[in-house]
Structure formats: structure tokens, C-alpha cells
Amino acid sequence: MNVKFIIITLLLTQTFYAQVKIQEDHLTIGYQKAKKASQFIGAETNVRTKSKKIVQYNIKVRIEMMNNKKQFFDPNKFSLIDNKEKVRLRPLDATYTNFTDKWHFNKLIKTKPKFKSLEDMYKPDVKDTFLDYKFDNITNVTLPIKFDAYNDFKLSFKKSKFEIHECYFEPKKLRKRNINLYFPVLKTTKKATLYYGKTKIKDIKFK
What we know:
Elements: H1 2-16, E1 20-22, E2 27-36, E3 54-65, E4 71-73, E5 78-82, E6 87-89, E7 93-97, E8 102-104, E9 107-109, E10 139-141, E11 145-148, E12 162-165, E13 167-169, E14 172-174, E15 176-186, E16 191-196, E17 199-205
Parallel strand pairs: 6-10
Antiparallel strand pairs: 1-2, 2-3, 3-15, 4-14, 5-6, 5-16, 7-8, 7-15, 9-13, 11-12, 16-17
């Protein structure tokens, strides 16, 4: 009985921590789970989707550097391909976590902003690597995000103004982290495939 229990435990452990090696970036990626992301303010993602046709999914992975040292990790290389709709989606939001805390990858915007409050998000020297990867008969899709043009921490009697921008992420030095990726998925989508660059990570079924 004990021997059987040990064997089953080992099999479950190997499945849970199954990792894909990304040799060119010297890291491994292990898929953990996918679930619908809460849209309550401050609960999970800081990007809200109001469309009735879209549901936001949190896809969780574990990344580990092969040399066990901190190096720049680029979440822009992740994408979700819906082969039925022939689209390749990028995350709306990305976070890195440990057991107790969560931090958001800094969002960067593609075009120079009109408002000073968004200037720190414009860093044209930081490359958007999502665009480096193309798949035959698949269209890259980026959903723009609406940003409040005024600083949320300052009182103002001005009417709130917004800017709409296509976004990507600023790479961050990490060693081992859980990564949460928040993708906008059509409610009619039943399955899609998670990629890192051109490397397949996991076929995912949505409930």
C-alpha cells in the first residue's frame, strides 16, 4: 500500500511540475492552471473588460531560470492562439507573485502620450517582442486599454479624461516566480494554445 502511494505521488508531482525548456532564454516554464479572472477592483487584474462577448482568463505558469540567478524575464513573448478564430492574443495584464505578495509588470504604451501623467509609460527603447513571432494564417491581436489621464492620487475638479493605448510590458529581473497572465478570450472559445515565442507550452480547455 505504501509503495503504491509513493508511486502515485511521484507521478502527480512530475505532472504538476512538467516544464518546458526555453534554451535561448535559459529558463523553464511550467503550466499550472487556468481560471476566469475576477473583475472586482483590486482582486486580480488591474484591467477591466466590459464587453459581453469577452471573458478574461488568468493563466498561471511557473518560470525558473536555469542558472538559478536573476535575469531579465520578458512576458511579451507569451501569447494565446485561438486556432478556430485564427487569432493570436497578447495578455492585457501580467503579474509575478510569491506566497503572500503580487506585483504587476509595468505597462508600456506604444505612442507618445498627450498627458504628462502617462509619460513614464512611454519607453520606445524597450522592444515589444510580441511582434517578433508570426504564425501562418494567424492574425496578431492587441486590445487597446483606456487610461485615466489624471493622477488617481491627486484631487482634481477637472473632468476625468482618458487616453487609449496599445500596451506591452517592461521586462523584469526574476529568478523563480509564479506568473499570472490575463488574456481576453471570446466566450465562445472552448480551447486555445499557450505559447512562449514559437514554443508551445500547453493546450488549454476553457470551461
